[in-house]
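RNA-binding transcriptional accessory protein structure dump, as promised
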Amino acid sequence: MDMIAELSKEFRLNQQHVGNIITLIDDGNTIPFIARYRKEMTGSCDDQVLRELSDRLQYLRNLEKRKEEILESIAAQGKMTDALSLAVQSAKTLAEAEDLYRPYRPKRRTRATIAQEKGLRPLADLIMAQTQRGTTLEKLAAPYVNLEKGVESWEDAVQGAQDILVEEISDDAEMRKKLRQIIRRDGLVVSRAVQENPVYEMYAEYSEPVSKIPSHRILAIDRGEKEECLKVKLELNDAPALAALCDRFVKLGSVTSACVKGAAEDSWKRLILPSLEREIRNELTQRAAKQAISMFALNLKPLLLQPPVKDKVIMGFDPAYRTGCKIAVVDATGKVLDTTVVYPTPPHKKVEEAKRELKRLIVKHGVTIISIGNGTASKESEIFVAELLRELETPVSYMVVSEAGASVYSASKLAAAEFPEFDVSLRSAVSIARRLQDPLAELVKIDPKAIGIGQYQHDMPPAELDSALEGVVESCVNSVGVDLNTASVSLLTHISGLNETVAKNVVAYRDDNGPFQNRSQLKKVARLGPKAYEQCAGFLRIPRGKNILDNTSVHPESYDAVTKLLELLGRKPSDLTMQGVGTVSQQIEKIGWQKAAAACGVGIPTLTDIVAELQKPGRDIRDELPPPLLRTDIMSLSDLKAGMELTGTVRNVTDFGAFVDIGVHQDGLVHISQMSDHFIKHPSDLVKVGDVVQVTVLSVEEAKKRISLTMKRTEAQKAKA
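structure tokens r here:
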């Protein structure tokens, strides 16, 4: 297989760029590095395309390896033909290759192999030929009766021969491919309840075409089956499949035709259908898992890239009942200033005492925002905080943040090393404060699966899920960049080219020698060699370093290009300031981008990136996103009425809609059908996690804690507009 040509066709990319990408990957370059600093070689492919291409490359290489193994195995059996060799080499998928190998794969003892041991292969071939006329099956089979071999009658001989044909028909690659297509086209996924469970109520008597069933329903049915609440199977009208089998294998007019037809029917019911049912079910599950992993990754990225709340003193509020609410105040850099425990919630209800303590901390440290975890006792805590804020003389707002994974982090070795003086619950309060302050820096400390934004993540193949989520985390951390002098080991571990050992060495060097003054000092860090330096340097920032370029995403390999650019524009190095160098783009326009790039010794994509950094050094891409929605008051579920217009924050996006926080402690669902007046293929086409949206309440079911919302404009809103 010409992999470059194949990948070029699949991804609609220039073959030279695909070849370059493969070389870069094989040379040990990371995806973030390739995406950011090798744009000329890749045609400016973004990291998502590069990851998909890398995954596809691995699949094709595995396919080629497997095809070689299959060809060697068949050749060793002495059964290789030119046609078979060409068919295997031309296979486009692992399934096609395995279908071709099926007749030659070593098998356990079956009815067919037993029949062959009894010498019935010639009779099977005679029956399959279907050329016999003017005779009977009895006469054809009689010579094969052999008491020593256990063939006691001509009927036994025919049955044994049929067993051989049944397996032969089942192993036919072309036929399996056709029957697989019939099941995909005409099959139904059917589920029936075997025990009552309200969670699977809609699947108690349910069926949906294989070709149309969406991923989230496949996963729900699979889980119901796993929990023994549902019985699931594929149902299919046998007629089209049997017609296809007879059309391929049965020749009319022979005394053996009925025997071949019987073998085809037996093969379908006993071997092919059960095998293909398992295969199609597995295929559906894999497709659903792939979609769910994709959705998880899609939700994770905007969650990690939520704008940080900068330069604010934040109070983390970890709600609880009996054990009290844990409080942690952190300064603008995330340093813990104070901690305490208050008891405003049941059973203690020491509301006034809690108010006095929190007012004292707010005044003492200049707190401007309270970050409340959304776990147990969150609603009561939010009501308490809203009442507290109304009594304050200075403006303070609050936000409810997801505390998913906070308990996992607070009990981890990492948290213990970071806050050895705090107990587990106080560490959670610190994490809740920092999640609002700098979501990316805090959330990278937690296993992405524990962040709580996916669907059926615990049912996903762990290796595939981990790989996809690690890719998202790596992409986010590197696209933002990190402060080399403040970044934790957790954050540094996700930087291109650094592993945990080297990240620890970076922090150790910083602790021993003081803050980094320039990127070149990285070369002195133990085990950080030239390749690692090349991969990581551009993503590490030094905000107060000697060289302003060290606080940008300009790679050290391009520093000479910056010098040449400044000379070309008649500028001096002293013109580089944190306020940026204005009018650079306009000056280059006059010279011409192609000419300027050639003079600097770089391509136009690299020059474009350099200019963007010179105009705004130290920029944080998250600053360009909408800020988080802060609140000062609260509503309860009972306050909601149909028709109410509210502002909310998207908390999760699924295949069937989006869940929106509207400030009542219970997220409302905007079903995909209620997201737009126009057709949208998927909710992610319209919204992402963290988006602030305008919604209208459709209905409220207090008993079930269900809120239905719409993003469509009502007639009144349209009239007003």
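The radius of gyration is 33 Å.
lmk if u need the other ones
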